[in-house]
Amino acid sequence: MLHNVLAAAPVMVLCLLLQGVVVAICLRRYASFRSTFQDQAALWVDVLLLITVMLLTLLCNFAQMAIWAALFILLGEFSDFTTALYHSAVNFITLGYGDIVMSKQWRMLGPIEAANGILMFGVSTSVMTAAVMDVIKYHARLQRE
Predict the structure, then answer these.
(1) What are the UniProt keywords, alphabetically (predicted)?
(2) Residues 6+ away with beta carbon under 8 Å from 110
(3) pLDDT at 35
(4) How far is CA 117 from CA 43, 46, 86, 138, in A?
(5) Distance CA 135, CA 126 (A)
(6) Which of 123, 121, 128, 122 is nearest to 49 (CA)?
(7) Which residue among 55, 71, 112, 132 is least packed, with the fewest CB closer than 10 Å?
(8) Helix (H, G, I), strand (E, B) or coil at 96
(9) Is the separation of the CB atoms in 25 and 56 below 8 Å?
């Protein structure tokens, strides 16, 4: 089991770094965009902001699935990237079909990736929730003025 943790650790750190960068970019761009269109209460501004945050965080999660898939290929668990990516996605989103199973030697990478994935989706969800809450607060403030 220790070899699973050692193999997964660099991938988990890379995923955490990637998620951190994407969250920081999303929040900075969101704040910048919101201040640029501060006087506008247009629906398109809110929609554009929320879609951008959702797309960036979703793309980040897809990239992390691809990183895990690359690890599986590197370890020789899968011969093609498509199968590795499918298996990675099933683990990352904690779906756990079980139709493709890794060898006994590397099987613990599945639950490790699932723990990483559920954490990353939680972070993505919190960023989206913060954006939605900001839109609600912004419009509540406009109505009071």
Answers:
(1) Membrane, Transmembrane, Transmembrane helix
(2) 91, 96, 102
(3) 75
(4) 32, 28, 14, 31
(5) 14
(6) 128
(7) 55
(8) coil
(9) yes
Q: Which two tokens stand for residue 11?
A: 């991938």
Q: Rounded distance, CA 73 to CA 86, Å? A: 12
Condensed to tens digits (0 to 9), the pLDDT of residues 28-54 reads: 888 887 777 666 667 777 888 889 889
What helix, strand, coil percent values describe the chain, rounded to 5? 80, 0, 20
Write out the two tokens for 53.
């945050």
The pLDDT tens digits of the residues spanning 89-138 come to 999 999 888 889 899 999 999 999 999 999 999 999 999 998 889 888 88
Q: Considering only 10-14, 41-45, 62-66, 139-143, which range has the smallest mean pLDDT? A: 41-45
